[in-house]
Amino acid sequence: MKAAILFSGGKDSTYATYLARKNGYELSCLISIFSKNKASYMFHTPSIEQVKKQAKVMDLPILISKTKGEKELELIDLEKAIKKAKEKYHFDTLVTGALHSVYQAERIQKICDKLKIKCFNPLWHKKETSYLKELIDAKFKIIIIGVFAYPLNQNWLGRVIDENFIDEVTQLKEKYKIHVAGEGGEFETFVLNCPLFQKELKVKSFKDLKEGENSFRREIKVQ
């Protein structure tokens, strides 16, 4: 079984990569989409350029495609990227980090059906709190690089997902209905280390950008 990973550099796609290997898949490549639209319905955008560094420490080839990020039209660009990767790396399965987003999962499944490849979603419907604890237990070092919902603010940028983080986000869920794992787009993440990496990545510089009253992103550079 050979698999390609739809990869954003965040916790979900990276953990899905880890689980695919644990499930016996041979990892053939990563596929990353760079969207010009920061509010894309499909694609992660904060610090997306840094996936190249993650691919390097995983010793995996990466195919990068660009899109304007226009709703639904961006799916055409995704399909082209997956088709190109399939022709080059000859995989039979596409792995995604879909957790609860039916919008994303249904659209990716349609593309896989069209290209006659299987779709593997190893995170699908994992319970959010136990999922974050699972990441910690698996030795994933994950930082927050974007927050997009009240009452999250700039002070959350750069925070590591640990037990304290889980406790605080769980409390916010009870009061503000925030999804503990950020599946509603409340926050975005970047993986600095995990068992797939040959070495831990270090943040060498960053720039915080305010995009709205409760919208901040951290553009990082890693080494």
Give me the secondary-structure topology:
Blueprint: E1 2-6, H1 11-22, E2 26-35, H2 51-58, E3 62-67, H3 73-89, E4 93-95, H4 102-115, E5 118-120, H5 128-137, E6 141-147, H6 163-176, E7 187-193, E8 203-212, E9 215-222
Parallel strand pairs: 1-2, 1-4, 2-3, 4-5
Antiparallel strand pairs: 6-7, 6-9, 8-9
Helix pairs in contact: 3-4
Keywords:
Rossmann fold, alpha/beta, 223 residues, 4-stranded antiparallel beta sheet, putative n-type atp pyrophosphatase, domain 2, 2 domains
Would you kindly provide a written description of the structure presented here, covering whatever features stand out?
With 223 residues, the protein is α/β, with parallel strands linked by helices. The protein has 2 domains: 2-120, Rossmann fold (3-Layer(aba) Sandwich); 140-222, putative n-type atp pyrophosphatase, domain 2 (Alpha-Beta Complex), CATH 3.90.1490.10. The chain contains 6 helices and 9 strands, in the order E-H-E-H-E-H-E-H-E-H-E-H-E-E-E. It has helices at 11-22, 51-58, 73-89, 102-115, 128-137, 163-176, and strands spanning 2-6, 26-35, 62-67, 93-95, 118-120, 141-147, 187-193, 203-212, 215-222. It has a 5-stranded parallel beta sheet with strand order 3-2-1-4-5, sandwiched between helices. It has a 4-stranded antiparallel beta sheet with strand order 7-6-9-8, with no helix packed on it. Helix 3 (73-89) crosses helix 4. The longest helix is centred in the middle third of the chain and has 17 residues, at 73-89. It is globular, with a radius of gyration of 16 Å.
